[in-house]
Each structure stands twice: as C-alpha cells, then as structure tokens.
C-alpha cells in the first residue's frame, strides 16, 4: 500500500485515459459483451448481498456517470466503444427495470464527464470533454425531454471539463468545474473553475485556479454549507471556504482552510459526511490508483479523514478491496451507509455511522508514521452487489434516490438495486 507507483502505470489509470488521444479499446484488452443476465454476485460471510431489481442495457457505448431525480435517470457515456461517447441516455426508473425513453446527443463532444440535476430539479448539467471542453445547461421543464439553455466554453474550459459539482452558496446556484490537464498546449495545467448559474441562460465564470503540475490532475469536488472539498490527486485534498467557513471566503475569492496529502496519493473524489452520531467529523476520499484496465482490473482504497478541525485534517481509517479500486460514492446519511462504485468489484456498502477512528490493535495498520483503522477488519463492510458474478461489471458511479440505489456500469448500462438498510 505504501509502495510508490511508477509514473507510466499511473498515467494509464481510468480517468487519466480520458486525457489521451485515440481509441479507448486499444488500452483495455478484451471487453465482454453487454448483458443484463445477472448470475452470481453474492456476498461474502458477514455481509449482505445487495439485491438487484433490474438493468437497462447499453451495448454501443461505455456508460459513465449517473444522476437520478424522481422517476427519471440520466447517464452519460465515455470514450469510444462501437460509437462515440457523446450520448446522454434518459431512463424511466419507476419500476424495477430501467427503461430507455429518450436520449440527447451533445454536439462537439468526444466524450462526456459528469452529469447532475440541480436540487430544485429544474436544470440538467453535463460536462464535456476532451478539447473544446464545456459546460452544457439543459432545462428540465419536461424531465424526459431536456432542452439546451446554454453552453459555457472558454479558454479555461478548453482542455475538457471532467466533473461539474452543482450546489448553492448562500442561496445562489453555482457549478464547480474540474478541468483536465493536457500534455501540451498554451495552458496545459488542470484548473478549478467556479461558474455562477444565477441566470442559467448566461453562465458566468467567477473564479479560476490552476492546479500545480505536481498534482497533476484535479478530478472532483464536494460542496456543502459553503465549504468546498477539492481532490488534488498527488497533493491529496484541500478544504476551501467559499462562503460558509467563517474565514471570509466567497465563490469569487475562496480561502484555503486546510489540506492533507492522503496516503498513496491519487485522490479522486470526496464525500463529507453529516452523521447524527459523529456530526460532520469525517470525509471519505476515493483513491483512483493505477494500474487499471477498463473491464478487467483497478486499484485504489477509500481513505477516511477526520476533519473535525478543518484546518488540520487527519487520516484515521481506510478500506481496501484486493484486486479492485473505488470510484464514486453515494451516502445514505440517515442510515449511515456509504455505497461505493468499485469498478470490477461491483458495489460495496460500508457502515460509516459513529466512531471510525478508534479500533483495536489487531484492526490497525501503520503506514510510515500514520496508524489507521482497517474498516474491513472492523466489520464495517455490510454489503456487496454485482460482485464476483456474471456478467463482468465495471461500475463507474452510484446514486441513491427514492429508496433505491442506481449503479452506472461502463460495460452493461444502468442497474437498479435495493439498499441494505
């Protein structure tokens, strides 16, 4: 876990591939045909099998991110399979089986990154990659028939917009964009771009910050209560006051409160937990380590940070799956369950309620000078889904909505699952 990874394998991790030119298939090996005929996928002793209700098949493209609102789900597509990844699928998820009802082709995009629905359900936000990257805003007056309102494409988004976190700061709507790095060009570095969406027909950039080349990527952010958590790959994470941290920060002038270089680096995504038992003490960081092959293998742990002091976060626990790595999270904060997309290992459910930083000596692992609790040894894994079965899966994203769990699977499409609590 502490062994440094060479630069070349790290450059071939899944999302780093998004910055390369050429066909994704040439880097993936043999990819199984898409299928919804699930068998196996049971849980190990001490955990619950996450029950699958149904699957919506996508076999022409690699499915990427998922966003769900009420009875409608949206999934983006990535790279190139037998068709270009510029397709947003629109699903009816009222019943157990997701049903494709419509789609949107995003012009000028060679692949799509994030997709999100605003909290009021009025707007759909789609991030486009690679060069000529942009943020596309759709009106959801009819959720099954999005209509484009605007598209923000500037020199700062040119490299490609990988993720777009959408939320409100002091009641005002913003999008926080993670912009890709390029190997060459006038401005090759990654960036964080904050966009004012008060008028969705006219998005406005209000802040841009370049990420040091030592990072070298920025992949995701998490916004809540005027605080922004930023995943900075090799540099770990930073916590910014953008209007709620009490240090005078704002969307146009953020203030960095604290930072931490996570063990192993490759900090990809973050969820800041609000839990009735532990308050807002913990943040979970996904490590998208290398090497990886789409459809076959992945690496990377979940890191647990104690952020009770926002100016001095500490790493206190971790979760490791042998032979697999994590991607995005969705957390049921009422029930205290974190659901993690785990690529070739399907979906994992962790009990994250209460004290995660205290454990017995047999449940501890020391890496360098840092001693952390092993969540698996603590019995915190409580569910597995789409794991060790047929068809093979490569789960990119998960989202909880309406008492169900949705998983976007690069190889097969959109799964609807039951929750463990």
Can you tell me the CATH class? Mainly Beta
Structural class: mainly beta
Count, helices = 1
Shape: globular
CATH superfamily: YVTN repeat-like/Quinoprotein amine dehydrogenase
Could you explain how this protein is built, in words?
This protein is mostly beta strands. It has a single domain (7-418), classed as Methylamine Dehydrogenase, Chain H, CATH 2.130.10.10. The protein is 1% helix and 46% strand. The strands form nine sheets. A six-stranded mixed sheet has the order 20-21-24-25-30-29, with no helix packed on it. Strands 2-31-28-27-26 form a five-stranded mixed sheet, with no helix packed on it. Strand 22 (289-293) and strand 23 form a beta hairpin. It starts with 6 loop residues before the first helix and ends with a strand.
Question: What are the main properties of this structure?
Answer:
single chain; mainly beta; Methylamine Dehydrogenase, Chain H; 5-stranded mixed sheet; 46% strand; globular
Short description:
This protein has one helix spanning 7-11, and strands spanning 39-40, 48-49, 52-57, 62-69, 72-78, 87-92, 99-105, 111-117, 123-129, 134-139, 147-152, 161-169, 172-179, 191-196, 204-210, 220-224, 227-231, 237-241, 255-260, 267-272, 282-287, 289-293, 297-299, 302-306, 314-319, 329-332, 337-341, 347-351, 364-367, 370-374, 381-385, 389-390, 395-401, 404-409, 413-418.
């Amino acid at each position: 876990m502490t062994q440094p990874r060479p630069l070349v394998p790290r450059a071939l991790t899944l999302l780093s591939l998004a910055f390369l030119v050429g066909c994704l298939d040439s880097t993936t090996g043999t990819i199984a045909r898409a299928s919804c005929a699930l068998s196996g996928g049971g849980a190990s002793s001490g955990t619950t099998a996450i029950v699958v209700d149904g699957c919506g098949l996508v076999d022409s493209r690699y499915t990427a991110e998922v966003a769900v609102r009420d009875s409608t789900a949206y999934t983006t597509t990535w790279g190139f399979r037998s068709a270009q990844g510029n397709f947003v699928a629109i699903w009816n998820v009222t019943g157990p089986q997701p049903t494709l009802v419509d789609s949107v082709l995003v012009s000028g995009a060679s692949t799509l990154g994030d997709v999100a629905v605003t909290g009021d359900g009025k707007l759909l936000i789609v991030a486009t990659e690679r060069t000529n990257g942009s943020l596309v805003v759709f009106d959801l007056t009819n959720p099954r028939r999005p209509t484009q309102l605007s598209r923000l494409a500037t020199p700062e988004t040119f490299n490609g917009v990988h993720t777009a976190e959408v939320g409100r700061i002091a009641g005002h709507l913003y999008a926080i964009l993670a912009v890709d790095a390029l190997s060459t060009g006038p401005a090759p570095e990654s960036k964080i771009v904050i966009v004012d969406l008060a008028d969705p027909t006219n998005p406005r950039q209000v802040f841009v910050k370049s990420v040091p080349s030592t990072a070298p990527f920025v992949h995701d952010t998490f916004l809540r209560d005027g605080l922004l958590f930023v995943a900075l790959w090799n540099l770990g994470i930073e916590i910014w006051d953008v209007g709620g941290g009490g240090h005078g920060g704002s969307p146009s002038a953020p203030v960095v409160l604290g930072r931490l270089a996570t063990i192993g680096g490759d900090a990809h995504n973050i969820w800041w937990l609000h839990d009735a038992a532990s308050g807002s003490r913990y943040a979970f960081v996904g490590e998208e380590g290398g090497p990886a092959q789409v459809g076959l293998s992945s690496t990377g742990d979940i890191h647990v940070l104690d952020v009770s002091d926002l100016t001095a976060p500490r790493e206190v626990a971790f979760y490791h799956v042998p032979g697999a790595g994590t991607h995005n999270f969705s957390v049921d904060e009422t029930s205290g369950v974190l659901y993690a997309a785990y690529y070739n290992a399907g979906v994992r459910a962790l009990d994250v309620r209460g004290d995660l930083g205290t454990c017995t000596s047999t449940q501890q692992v020391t890496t360098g000078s840092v001693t952390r609790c092993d969540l698996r040894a603590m019995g915190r894994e409580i569910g597995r889904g789409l794991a060790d079965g047929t068809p093979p899966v490569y789960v990119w994203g998960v989202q909880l909505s309406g008492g169900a769990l949705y998983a976007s699977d690069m190889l097969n499409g959109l799964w609807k699952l039951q929750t463990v609590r």
